[in-house]
Amino acid sequence: MITVALAKGALLKDSVARFAAAGLDFSAVLDKNNRQLMVPTPCGRARALLVRNGDVPTYVAYGQAQLGVVGYDVLKEHQLPVAQLVDLGFGGCRMSVAVQESSGYTRAADLPPHCRVASKFTHCAREYFDALDLPVELVHLNGSVELGPITGMSEAIVDLVATGRTLRDNGLVAIEDLFQSTARLVGHPLSVRLDNGPLASIVEAIRAAGTPVGSSS
């Protein structure tokens, strides 16, 4: 039986739709009354593990799931050995540096050396500021990082931005983007390499479902 790690939250509905295109019905996970964390398909070919977005690559890397759907931001942050198979295109957002609108900073390089930057994504932030050759003190927060600049604990934040409304509502503005993020289909490398057909057929069906009609790719 194929096991698929699906992220709870914003990516779940679109993830279920993509697997439906591959003949795997995970729609039961969308039932608000569902309390099961491991949900089989009616056909019995596969089962879904309902996990947090940040845990998807862990389950896949350790082989407890052969496939998974996760945001590219999580893959960049955790750097686990999973195979990126398909850019699914949904769940679009960007990883950005943001500051108080009144700060006067217009780009990341304007930040003073050794200033504090708050983020949930400290690996991504470190990599970015190292590339700028700008030494900063990273403060790891798990909750609302917007409070960093608001309270004066940090000069800036590095966080995911979708519509930008949360930033605007809190007097912040994005001044530079690190990268764009979308949902990715990932696989356990060994399972993909040793696959004798079932995984490949699912991956190709999911890839085809995201290809515009008339495309030659």
Q: Describe it for me?
A:
The chain has 217 residues and is an alpha/beta fold. 28% of the residues lie in helices and 29% in strands. It has helices spanning 12-21, 56-61, 72-78, 122-131, 147-151, 165-169, 189-194, 198-209, and strands at 2-7, 38-40, 46-51, 67-71, 83-87, 93-100, 116-119, 137-140, 156-161, 172-181, 183-187. The strands form 2 sheets. A 6-stranded mixed sheet has the order 2-3-1-4-11-5. A 5-stranded mixed sheet has the order 8-7-9-6-10. The model is unreliable at 212-217 (pLDDT under 50).
Which terms would index this structure?
elongated, five-stranded mixed beta sheet, 217 residues, alpha/beta, 29% strand
Give the DSSP E fraction (strand runs of 2 or more residues).
25-35%
Can you write the helix and strand succession as a string?
Answer: EHEEHEHEEEHEHEHEEHH
Structural class: alpha/beta
- Count of alpha and pi helical runs: 8
C-alpha termini separation: 30 Å
Strand order of the largest sheet: 2-3-1-4-11-5
Shape: elongated
The helicity comes to 25-40%
Number of strands: 11
- Which residue ranges are poorly predicted, with pLDDT under 50 across at least 5 consecutive positions? 212-217
Determine the mean pLDDT: 93
Computed over alpha carbons, the radius of gyration is 19 Å
Q: What order do the helices and strands come in, and which of them pair?
A:
Blueprint: E1 2-7, H1 12-21, E2 38-40, E3 46-51, H2 56-61, E4 67-71, H3 72-78, E5 83-87, E6 93-100, E7 116-119, H4 122-131, E8 137-140, H5 147-151, E9 156-161, H6 165-169, E10 172-181, E11 183-187, H7 189-194, H8 198-209
Parallel strand pairs: 1-3, 1-4, 7-8, 7-9
Antiparallel strand pairs: 2-3, 4-11, 5-11, 6-9, 6-10
